[in-house]
Amino acid sequence: MENSALINILSSPKRIVIVCHKNPDGDAMGSSLGLYHYLTLKGHHAMVITPNEYPDFLDWLPGNETVKNAKDIPQFAKDRIAEAEIIFCLDFNTLSRIDQLATPVEQSAAYKVLIDHHQQPQQFDFMWHRVEASSTCQLVFEFIEMLGDKALVNKDIASCLYTGIMTDTGSFRFPSTVAKVHRIIADLIDAGAENSVIHRNVFSAYTESRLKLLGYCISERLTVIPEKATAYISLSKDELKKFGFVPGDTEGIVNYPLDIKGIKLSAIFIEREDGVKISFRSVGQFSVNQFSRAHFGGGGHDNAAGGQSTLSLQQTVEKFVTLLDSYAQDIINS
Question: Is the pTM of this model over 0.85?
Answer without folding.
Answer: yes
